[in-house]
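request received
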Amino acid sequence: MSRARVPGPLAGRDFRLLYTSTVVSGLGDWLDQVALLVLVTTVWHGGAGDLALVVAASMLPLLATPFLAVLVDRRPSRRVLILTDLVQAGLTLGLVVAPGVYWAAGLVLVRSALGSVGGLAGQIQLRVSVPPDGVQAATVLLQTAMQSVKILGPALGGLLIAFMSPRAVFAANACTFLVGVITARALRTTSSPSPSADQHYFKELGEGFRHVFGSRLLRSLLFVMCSLMFVVFLYDSMAALIVPALGMGTPYIGYMVSAVGLGGVAGSLLMGRFAGRLRPFLTMAGSVLVIGCIIVVIGFTIVRDIRIDSAIWLCVIFLLGIASAGILVTFPSVVHSETPVELTGRVWALMNSVPAVLNVLAPMTAAALVAWIGLGSLLLLAGAALLLTAVAVAARLGRVPPTAPPPTAAPSGADDGAGRAEEPAPGPAPLNSGAPHRETRAPCVKRAGSSTEEITMADKIDKLAEAGFSLTDANDAQQAVLKSLTEDEVNVLLSVKSRIEAAGSDVEGHSLSDPSGGYLW
Amino acid sequence: MEEQTRSRALRRKIGLLMPAVDAASRQMWTHPHSDQVYLEWLRTLHGTIRATVPLMLAAVEQCTARQGDPVADLVGRYLAKHIREEYGHDQWVAEDYAVAGGDPETLRTTLPGAAIASLVGSQYYWLRHVHPVALVGHIAVLEGNPPGPGLAGDLAARTGLPEASFRTIARHAQLDVQHRDDVHRLIDRLPLDPAQEELLGVSALHSMRGLIEVMEDVLGRVHRRSPVALAG
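response:
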């Protein structure tokens, strides 16, 4: 009996579980966010200060993430997922009975910290749930799901709030965490604790920092993402002002968010078709170039007070969404490709938290700049900065080859943990992405040997070439296979070096046309 | 563009060592004393092929013990069917050996060399101590490149031995085409985790290396039997 065909990584049971958990929890996050805003403003009649308190409570734990990451790397991912989701379910239920904004902020603070921890565990779990050459496709799938949730979530949240109290929505979100617990318990794979788990805490912490700052690609990516996130959030935080300045009514803010989300879905699907074949930084540069051009056009339109049909703006914003996928998909692919499993938690925490911290500064800077130079000029400035970034990235990093599948993991048998997965990457979300801030979760695997013993992709290719393997004529599919070879596979190949070298000369001059069948089974 | 299935990826990995295997194979079949090489090859082949069914039985036992493991379940089902298809092939080799002038009784007394032990024995280790899916990588190598349809005839002409002594090759030229497709289909259906996929790849590449060593061993044994004649 033939089975329905499912997209690559979804064919794997554990990734299906992780994916389900991602979608459900992503939806829960959006419901929760809408409910929290309504609760603070409408039920408790809180002001801007109360709102800021809740937002800060959800953001602050990001600062602690790199320090918590060491503990995540030390434990089986599945167990971390189960535990964090279980406690988050309890904390979310706590919001149902929270008497005031301070209680709510406290609960959100702890929940956000646990969300970050669970997010890191999710990244690790993805790597053990998906074969190395499927990680990029899995990332695309998660990205597409999260973009879809971005469209559905607010709409569903608004709908639920219309019929239910915000507290009931929290209860619904608590259920999504429980779904996470159930799916994580059903996972068959989990990561092995970091081989350096018996080391001193600070030594392990330093390993994460050293890996990021010692790798040219990760260092560059971190710098690029920091720059991008800061600039993007300069205008993103002003979305509520931009829409009316373009001559559109308030409802268009919602339409714009949906257009960005739809564009993101389309862009992610588009990226999925080219997964593993595009130069990552060139793709990012191209995306940033398009986004920069659009922001410049918007800024110019506002400065000159030009009126354009709203439908055209929706199309433009849709294009913006498509372009953003180039960054949202590329970022996690590069991080996974360059990170050994045992460092995944620490590296992800660092790569996510640094740009996120800058995001906190962006709205304040944007507000000051709008007061000083005006909204249109701010957009022109942001657009120009994006264009310059695009050129710089293309010039400096454009030659970096397509990302290779990440190192293979050796997952342990299932222990007793749980999990949900969320979309990774602190990718620049254009125009009021307003993404709720539960940490993202994705892939990770254990590689044989410690990080210091690992051979890099470049080393691998070099060594194979030195051993006589002809790699120059390899097509894309062959290149992909070469890059996916694990260390042990490379070692077996290298052990046949002398035979490979001999093969070149030996095959000449013999009459046997087909040498196959040297051995039988 | 061709879809990158798991079996295609594995074939590409295997393909990296194919020039070396082909070279060893050519060296063997085009040897000036190809009749002696063929007899030695049959002795060696018997050493491995007599382990085929026991090896698969051992794997099935491991698969059965792994209740709830979907990979083991699929591998077990595949092997249960495949055991029937491979049963009795050692007898074919013995018959060919007899027709080629060898004494089939010596097949049972000849000590299989270290190359054979490494090729087959590694599978016992992996399937018992890691996961029985390792054997699928081994099978993908051994059945992934069936003999060409003309090889049996070519060798008969080259060695001067009766065509009837090449029936094992001739039969495999037909059977292994189907077996190759079967194992590739299995590989594409297996819900492998990354570690199992790595095991599959390492097992296959090790088997490729093992084949080269076995074929070199065949030539070495022939050389040791008649060093003077072969020196020229």
